[in-house]
Write a structure and sequence with these properties.
about 15% strand, Helicase, Ruva Protein, domain 3, 10 helices, alpha/beta, seven-stranded parallel beta sheet, about 250 residues, elongated, Alpha/beta knot, disordered N terminus
Amino acid sequence: MADSETNLDALARLRVVLVAPQHPGNIGAAARAMKVMGLSDLALVTPRRFPAAEAAARASGADDVLAAAQVHATLQEAIADCVLAIGTSARARHTVWPLLDARDAAQEAVTRAQPGQKVALVFGRERSGLTNEELDHCRIHLCIPTNPDYASLNLAAAVQVVGYELRMAAGAGMPVVPTEQPVAVADMEGLYEHWAEVLTASGYYDPDEPKLLMRRLRRLFNRAAPDRTELNILRGALRSLDPRRK
């Protein structure tokens, strides 16, 4: 994928796996976090209660993500068709393992999620996370840097952070905002002439001793870079303030 391109299609090939979630409300909140970031593939491993009304209530419109969620008996089953599993881990482990922060892990996930290839992002239990045995099934471990004095991050919040990084890695970026109609050089020159005329008529500007007034006004409006609407406002204000106006 070229740097200038987006790969939002890869988001459909990313699977969020929640291992043994204890509270159905957390499942719903995680589904909501997923949908906000364009993720739709949710897998649940031995959830305590699902489906449940609390999950639907916390999903807040992400009911389609919940309805499509697959329930599995084991983590191995949930990730069996994936080419890569990335496990979230908040604790330091004695065994050395490839460890990435959320941003780098997201880039790796999107890169590996080629057509026909699924990548799993695995999240553990609310209180204890993933076991060492479960992390053994994940080729990469992901850690979200948090405040060491208060590192508590709930399940849905963790999914939200990782989901955001996945979306950015896929090249979503900021939405393009339509720009206002640009102003031509000739129109800006007309504005400067208008200023000179009105300021001269008011007695504030003396063309015989111009000093740097008009140059400074040019610099001011060059920095401001007014669009067409703003230019029209300025010209209208000048007309209304013109002492020659009858």
